[in-house]
Design goal:
The complex is a heterodimer of chains A (676) and B (153).
Chain A: H1 2-30, H2 33-36, H3 39-62, H4 69-74, H5 81-86, H6 92-112, H7 119-143, H8 167-196, H9 201-232, H10 243-268, H11 272-295, H12 309-336, H13 347-377, E1 383-385, H14 387-407, H15 418-443, H16 448-473, H17 481-489, H18 493-518, E2 520-526, E3 531-534, E4 537-548, E5 552-563, E6 566-571, E7 574-578, E8 584-587, E9 589-592, E10 596-605, E11 611-619, H19 622-639, H20 642-649, H21 651-657
Antiparallel strand pairs in A: 2-11, 3-4, 4-5, 5-6, 5-7, 7-8, 9-10, 10-11
Chain B: H1 2-32, E1 33-37, H2 39-43, E2 54-60, E3 66-67, E4 73-79, E5 84-90, E6 102-110, E7 113-120, H3 130-150
Parallel strand pairs in B: 1-2, 5-7
Antiparallel strand pairs in B: 2-4, 2-6, 3-4, 4-5, 6-7
Classes of the chains: A alpha+beta (676), B alpha+beta (153).
Chain lengths: 676, 153
């Protein structure tokens, strides 16, 4: 009965979504207020219906209703309760429902927090989101209904893939999806601007916080996925350029470009068309990512559902969304206009170069990801594009971009002065060069790329110190200890947020450089009592015992790590076999620290109580995720800036003075906006 | 006039960016592609020239897994049900590696022995990745073609 209620709620949600999409947009285009007024209530009803469907599915999972086909295929009565709930998004159908639910949540949020936007704008945005929901609900109802019954019911479920039975599953997909779906708001704002032919700095100010928060979630989601892969797969890697990882990384790259281009649109009224185009691309790549992962087109650790029948629908949906929005762009973009002028050397140019490089990088990654699929579908043979390809295209693009990242924030809008910037940055440059040369020798080994990595990392930090210092000189107060901290805290939140995110990039680069250069890896055969030493740590293998978990049996190894005879850590790597799918699984034993991880994973027994064992010393590896976390925090910090709250309160007043923000990210005197 | 110059400059910067990107992509693609090749093709000599790495896919033959004395190097046979190639690999095998299931290995062929640098065992509940399935299909076709030519006599 409950699953039928869920199914029925989905059908009703589809009907409401059609109304929400068609009536709201038509009302806005025809100027009929009563139709536009339907947008908000429709969004609320739509949300309630999708939420009902989601909770019905959750009910089926919690109470082990194996007469529901989807539950029977990804759950099992022995599965612990938290994984039974997380198993909702452990497969194709449920992930779509999660997607739909999050879309409804974002739509609700837009309806709730847009009280001061013009009604036609709000109804267009909500309408576009309604149309996206129509596509998703149709896809779910016609090809992948999570409520399909299995008659007769299965005695028990086929269980969740053991790889997914981890806390990572509880947080990683929802965070990632909040990010993916969040870009639909930026997309809807862009389409609304095209439909309304109205696009100015106020538009960018509305759209920008939504985009930034979606980006923050996506960043956190990707980082969490990377960390999960690191400890779960037992290979010790944190990024594999796996097609599925790329699918989430593509919207991130273009979304990052969008975040920066929106800054120009908001502050200077520039890059308007480009911003709209980026918003379209970002969301299109989010859609592509969702579908690539869940359609089974890609073979990878993540792709569990294989059903080519769905491919046609997916392709159709992508063509409608991408083709439709690009056609609209081609038709309406001339109305939107190009926006403010700027000089060849100016902050706009730095941001433009950031955008060009991010988009080119995204293009290269997209090509490497889709190329094998393309050749395969043309029957030109099967190939694989490996990590070396991605490293070879990605690094040369990122190095100059990171260099410019130090310069962009200190450049003036519209017209910057290169000699002036050079003299302001000379100490920052000196510090980063010296550190880049010294640090490798402190660590013990020198490579050119290592120095480049260190230089970039210190460059970002020192340039932030310079620009923050210049800003602080303009304020007064104590210049030591708490007083200084308070003065820094009094700087505009958006400025601090940007710097936190940029420091995150520096921390990330530091982690990557350290771990790529100085990690030590050993695969070996170890008997009980055998020891191995690396980087000052001694690992002693103390044998393996059999233990039993809730739904698995495991061989648990014990490894004692000592430094100069003192115990540093005891690690317990496991080799699990899950009862239902009888699939072996490696759980690495990790001791995480601020400056290093010690990582041990078990291979297999090789006779006489000996095991093949993999041991890693990974310096600074945690900084990789720490850096990503800082980026995410930075984004959230930036949108707490008071100008966004003021913007919503004093919207009328803002109309006239848009661009002369209450606060500015720039040290330059605020200039009046140039409008066409 | 000045605006036009500026616009030209921006277009040139954009094009230069694209050109650099395209150059990087082509260069990287050239040296970092790995073809999937079946055991039958390997024995027929259809492998990349210049000792380039490629991917060999097929089923791990039951009973062929042999561990060397160092405890880490393994030899196993990969077959597409027609021909068989022996693979050598030093390191820890992935969780899903099992005799009688599909495997994809990347490496180079040296004196008839495929020295793998990477062993991938990813599959769904049918213990077969699409790449391996295609290898087997090809092998089946080759077998049919061979027997078809012989059968009439």
């Amino acid at each position: 009965m409950i699953p039928e209620i869920g199914h029925f709620a989905l059908i009703l949600a589809l009907c409401v979504a059609v109304v929400q999409g068609v009536v709201a947009i038509a009302g806005a285009q025809l100027g009929i207020r009563s139709w536009m007024a339907m947008a908000r209530p429709a969004a609320q009803v739509h949300f309630i219906l999708v939420a009902v469907a989601f909770f019905c599915l959750m009910y089926a999972f919690i109470y082990n209703d194996f007469s529901v086909k989807y539950v029977a295929s990804v759950s099992n009565s022995m599965l612990p309760i938290q994984y039974r709930i997380a198993a909702i998004w452990g497969g194709h159908e449920g992930s779509l429902l999660l997607w739909g639910l999050l879309l409804a949540v974002w739509t609700m949020a837009v309806a709730r927090y847009s009280r001061n936007l013009p009604l036609d704008m709000v109804s267009r945005v909500i309408g576009v989101m309604g149309l996206i929901s129509v596509g998703f609900l149709m896809f779910m109802l016609f090809t992948s209904n999570p409520f399909d019954r299995l008659l007769p019911a299965a005695a028990d479920g086929r269980d969740l893939n053991p790889l997914l039975q981890d806390p990572g599953l509880i947080f990683h997909p929802p965070l990632l999806y909040i990010g993916y779906v969040g870009f639909s708001v930026a997309f809807a704002f862009a389409i609304a601007a095209l439909l309304g032919g109205r696009m100015d700095a106020t538009w960018a100010r509305w759209s920008r916080p939504w985009t930034t928060i979606a980006w923050s979630f996506l960043t956190a989601g990707i980082a969490l996925g990377s960390w999960w892969a690191y400890y779960e797969l037992g290979w010790g890697g944190w990024w594999f350029w796996d097609p599925v990882e790329n699918a989430s990384f593509l919207p991130w790259l273009v979304g990052t470009a969008l975040v920066h281009s929106l800054a120009v649109t908001e502050k200077r009224g520039g890059f308007k068309n480009w911003t709209v185009l980026l918003a379209i691309f970002t969301f299109s790549l989010s859609l592509l990512g969702t579908f690539l992962v869940r359609s089974g087109v890609l073979t990878s650790v993540h792709a569990f559902a294989t059903d080519p029948e769905r491919g046609v629908f997916i392709l159709g949906f992508l063509i409608v969304v991408i083709g439709g929005s690009l056609a609209l762009f081609a038709w309406r973009a001339p109305k939107v206009g190009l926006g403010g002028r700027f000089n060849l050397v100016s902050r706009e140019t730095f941001l433009l170069m950031n955008n060009v490089m991010l988009v080119v990088a995204a293009g290269a990654v997209l090509l490497g990801t889709l190329y094998p699929l393309l050749l395969d579908s043309l029957d030109m043979g099967k190939i694989s594009v490996g990590p070396p390809y991605f490293d070879a295209v990605f690094l040369p693009l990122m190095v100059p971009m990171i260099f410019l990242m130090g310069l962009g924030p200190i450049a003036r809008w519209r017209q910057a002065d290169l000699p002036d910037m050079a003299s302001r940055m000379k100490w920052a440059a000196a510090v980063s060069l010296v550190m880049a040369l010294i640090l490798p020798f402190v660590m013990g080994e020198w490579f050119a790329l290592t120095s480049v990595g260190f230089a970039l990392s210190f460059w970002i930090v020192s340039s932030i110190v310079v620009s923050t210092g210049e800003r602080l000189l303009k304020t007064s107060g104590s210049s030591s200890g708490l007083g200084l901290l308070r003065r820094i805290g009094a700087l505009p939140k958006s400025y601090l947020g940007m710097n936190i995110a940029h420091i995150g990039v520096a921390v990330f680069i530091m982690g990557v450089t350290m771990v790529n250069t100085y990690e030590v890896e050993k695969d070996m055969r170890m008997e009980v009592g055998d020891t191995v030493s690396m980087s000052g740590y001694t690992f002693r293998f103390d044998g393996v015992t059999e233990i039993e978990g809730p739904n698995y049996k495991a061989s648990r190894g014990q490894v004692l790590v000592t430094v100069d005879g003192e115990t540093e850590a005891v690690l317990f790597p496991e080799k699990r076999v899950y009862f239902v799918q009888t699939m072996p699984m490696t759980e690495a034993g990790i001791d995480s620290g601020l400056f290093r991880d010690l990582y041990v994973s078990l291979g297999e027994p090789v006779g006489n109580g000996a095991w093949s064992v993999r041991v890693y010393y990974k310096p600074f590896v945690g900084w990789i995720w720490g850096g990503a976390f800082l980026m995410s925090i930075g984004g959230i910090f930036a949108i707490s800036d008071r100008r966004y709250r003021l913007a919503s309160r004093k919207q009328k007043a803002q109309e006239k003075t848009a661009g002369q923000a209450v606060t500015g990210q720039t040290a330059a005197p605020v200039q009046t906006m140039e409008r066409e | 006039m000045k605006t036009r110059h500026k616009r030209m400059a921006f277009i040139l910067v954009g094009l230069a960016g694209l050109a650099v990107g395209a150059g990087l992509v082509l260069n990287a693609l050239n040296s970092n592609l790995a073809l999937y090749i079946s055991p039958t093709d390997v024995l027929a000599g259809n492998i990349p020239k210049d000792h380039q790495a490629f991917r060999l896919g097929g089923m791990v033959v039951e009973g062929s897994l042999k561990r060397q004395d160092d405890g880490l190097t393994v030899h196993f046979d990969v077959s597409d049900n027609v021909e068989t190639v022996t693979v050598a690999y030093t390191g820890i095998l992935p969780d899903l590696f099992k005799e009688g299931t599909g495997v994809v290995t990347q490496g180079r062929l040296t004196d008839g022995l495929f020295k793998a640098t990477e062993v991938l065992a990813k599959h769904d509940e049918n213990y077969m990745s699409p790449e391996v399935a295609e290898m087997l299909e090809k092998g089946e076709k080759a077998k049919q073609a061979a027997t078809g030519a012989v059968a009439p006599y």
